[in-house]
Amino acid sequence: MKAMAAMMSMPPPPPSSSSPLASQSLSVPSRQASNLPVLTIPGSHGWPLVGPISDRLDYFWFQGPDTFFRSRMEKHKSTVFRTNVPPSFPFFLRVNPKVIAVLDCNSFAHLFDMEVVEKKDVLVGDFMPSTSYTGDTRVCAYLDTEEPKHGQLKNFALDILKRGSKVWVEELQANLDVFFDTIESDISKNGSSSFLSHLQTFLFNFLSKSLVGADPALDPGVANSGPLSIDLWLGLQLLPTVPILAFQPLVEIFLHSYTYPFALVSGGYRKLYSFIEQHGKEVVQLGEKEFGLSKSDAIHNLIFTLGFNAYGGFSVFLPTLLGTIASDKTGLQARLRDEVRKVCGTSTGLRFDLVKDMELVNSVVYETLRLNPPVQLQYARARKDFQLTSHDSVFDVKKGELLCGYQPLAMRDGKVFEDPESFKPDRFVGKGKELLNYLFWSNGPQTGTPSETNKQCAAKDYVTLSASLIVAHMYRRYDSISGDAGSITAVEKAN
Ligand code: HEM
What we know:
Blueprint (H helix, E strand, L loop, with lengths): L1 H7 L29 E2 L10 H13 L1 H13 L3 E5 L13 E5 L2 H4 L8 E2 L29 H43 L2 E2 L1 H17 L7 H19 L11 H6 L10 H14 L1 H11 L3 H32 L5 H13 L7 H4 L3 H13 L5 E6 L3 E4 L4 E4 L4 E5 H4 L49 H18 E6 L3 E7 L2
Parallel strand pairs: 1-8, 3-9
Antiparallel strand pairs: 2-3, 4-6, 5-11, 6-9, 7-8, 10-11
Helix pairs in contact: 2-3, 5-6, 5-10, 5-16, 6-7, 6-11, 7-9, 9-11, 10-11, 11-14, 12-16, 14-16
The chain binds protoporphyrin IX containing FE.
The site of protoporphyrin IX containing FE has 25 residues, from helix 5, helix 11 and helix 16.
Keywords: Heme, Iron, Lyase, Metal-binding
GO molecular function: heme binding; iron ion binding; lyase activity; monooxygenase activity; oxidoreductase activity, acting on paired donors, with incorporation or reduction of molecular oxygen
Protein name: Linolenate hydroperoxide lyase
């Protein structure tokens, strides 16, 4: 009843995939009440140099991102305010740290409205890692929808997902079995399994085969070193933006003050390039022939999609999902197990269409993404002057200003999600599915459709369905598992 009441008072959802607007852009909730007050955006960027450095130290050291955004939201009594975000002074002189933070569902949704914002080179803010990390080319995620190449590359990504979908489910399950075999063997030897490296091996093998059509087993060097090479390549390019709260002030001095050269990881990157060139020929040629890409553009974009988008995204998301389920003490596992077995009935294998009927499993996946969005920050630059609407106010934004959405807070918006800080496994079941309009982990609502005209994650549905399939696979194999986001300590095999 309370949930229904909350829904009634909720802002109108962004248009769903069935809306004619959705094919053009993922538009924002309309400015629902024209009588909302137009206010000046609170907060300031502070004194030159002093403001940015003090905000940087708060963000990386004294507060951490969550307290950083939360405390300013409370201080300004507003979900929209001005602040600085790192990296900044002294060695990032060309990076402009000034942003407008947007922390409620309404204001956050402007980040998806390609009519009013552009997404050129703002994947991780005004700072952009050197293009030497991506073969001296600006890959899809850095392109704005108005750049023609974005359409070519986005359609290429959507197409390889569609073509790979036949092997996707098979590879996912085959590699999952290897993953769980390794965990069992660790538990029997050591009493527990710290599973991150096993998970990353599983992801690298499964994603190489299903996205790029390249089998790491054909190149033992890459099979062994691929996951670590990607970790280092990702870590090095993102280092200036990644919060590390331990070992301060050393981290500020040595890790957050300059960029590191691609040369440090170029060997591993070159191996990945040759691996895809040699073993992913079919997919590379598809990029050349059907999407008009040069061979090197196709390969650099495949490495980015495989390594940054897919492997990187799942490496953050899956430990949280496994940890949430494995550490539950409320009886959730028995409910998940019952649903999986009921829906599967006598069928031997799992399929996406079976998984779609598992309401609780899907809801647990969505709720995990809501409380722990794997990509916490999203940025977009005002394409023109426009008015930005929060739940209770309207603000004037000038062309060129950078919006910064911190998703963990937007996804705890109490005007949309009842009891927003709690993990509620059934939140998205039944009528709760309407809340999918406000689930933004993919840089767009879960009801949206990724396309060349927006910047929503190309694999929006593959990610959630794959996660549900992993949970379903687990409960066909086990009655229960115990552990947390870092390790599995016990598994009880299904009878
Ligand atoms: C858990 C896994 C994943 C997460 C959390 C994730 C998240 C995201 C997010 C937040 C964005 C938008 C970034 C921004 O512009 O601010 C994005 C973009 C993108 N993702 Fe994913 N992603 C995941 C998996 C994948 C996979 C498996 C693919 C494989 C095709 C993929 C392909 C892409 C592409 C191509 C873009 C760029 C879209 C564009 O430029 O229009 N992602 N992803």
